[in-house]
Structure formats: C-alpha cells, structure tokens
Amino acid sequence: MPASLKILVKACLLAAVAMAPSSALAAALLFYDPPMSPEGGRPLHQALLGWTFFPTTAITITHLGLFDDYSDGFDVAHPIGLFRLNDGAELASSVVSAGLADPLVDEFRYVDVPDVTLVSGVEYVLAYYTNDPAGISRDYQAFPLGLGVGHDSAIALGYSRVQPGGAPGLGIPNTQIYPGAYFVGPNALFTVVPIPGAVWMFGSTLGVMGWMRRKAVNAG
Predict the structure, then answer these.
(1) Higher pLDDT, 26 or 19
(2) Which of 85, 179, 75, 181 is nearest to 130 (CA)?
C-alpha cells in the first residue's frame, strides 16, 4: 500500500473513532451530592410522579432506577416506567424492589429492562408510583432539581408531572408542574447510539482504497 494511502486510511480511522461516542452507561440524572444540598423530599402517599425529557441525540435505555435517600433501601416496592408522551405508549416498565435487592449507583437503585432506543427531539416520561397507602413509609423517593443534581448532556429537561390519588398502577402523571419545580425520583441508565457519520466515513475510506487500487492496476 502506498505511503500516502496508508496516511489517508489512518486519518479516516482516527476520525471515525473520535466521532463514535463512548459505549459506557450514563445516567440521565446526575447526582453530585455536595455538602448541604437540599436532597430528599417525602412524596405524596399514593401518587404517580415523574418528569419529561427530550433526547438531544439517539439513546438506548438499559435500566430504570429510583432515588434512595440515605441508600438504605425501600420500605415497599415501586412500579416504574418509561413512556412516550405524545401517544402514551409504554416503552419499558419494571418494579423497583423493597429492601436492598436492586443495585445502588449514586443513590439510585436500578432494575434492568429490555433495551429501548429513543429518538432525538421526542418528549418522553419517566414515572413511578409512590405506593404508600398508609402514609407511613420512610422512603424518600423525590428531590428538588437544584444544588447537587444535574442531567446528562444527551437529554434536555421538560417538566415534572404529578397525579395524586388513585389505585396502585403505572402510567403517565396527568398534571404538568410549572417550570423550575423539578421534584424527581425516577432515573435511567443509557448508552448513546453510534453516530452514522463515523460508519459512513469508514465505508468511504474502504471505497477510496478500492478505487486507488483499481487505478494502479489499470495504469500498470
């Protein structure tokens, strides 16, 4: 292979690698927990609580999670789900177990769900049911989005949503809360879908190699 072609191939491969995002799991909400952060908030006894978001790039959800203040487990189990807002479609759901069974990552306990890919610019909802009819649970499953809490750049925040009362179940909370009042408990782990441009660039490199090889053969 000519030296110039080797340089071209190497440059294109390096560019493709640089354009391809990391496959490591990331959390939608990021919890930094500095001193004196206003963490923890007792939610309504029987209610659906959640928040909406817009992916800024295509992402694949792999786990759903719930905030566990003090990391001491939950008194009761909590249904949790992921929905598309415009048509109400349930895309993933599970139950966060009572106790300490589910793995803890940065004060959220996560459950595995079948992978589901979300597209950029569409509004989605993460929601859970507080599931405490007696109002005696010690669980703290919500906190204000302010000091100590941020979000990944792969999403843009929408609004918090709430639906008080009703029988235990899972769905999209029916009332939107005004901007800035982000009391959120559900979370998700995701990977970023690889950028097609990186794959296209690699394919183009192979095409250039083939063309140069045919040109050299014809010249000979």
Answers:
(1) 26
(2) 75
> What's the CATH code of the domain at 93?
2.60.120
Task: Return the SS3 of 36.
Answer: coil
Looking at every residue in the chain, the average pLDDT score rounds to 76
What distance in Å separates the CA atoms of residue 157 and residue 174, rounded to the nearest whole number? 18
Residues 203 and 139 in one domain: no
pTM as predicted? 0.76
- pLDDT at 139 > cutoff 90: no
209 lies in which domain range?
1-20+195-220
Cβ of 82: how many Cβ atoms within 10 Å?
A: 22
Coil, helix or strand for 91?
A: strand
CA 73 to CA 48: how far, in whole Å? 20
Residue 20's pLDDT band (cuts 50, 70, 90): very low
CA dihedral 149, 102, 168, 60 (to 10 degrees): 60
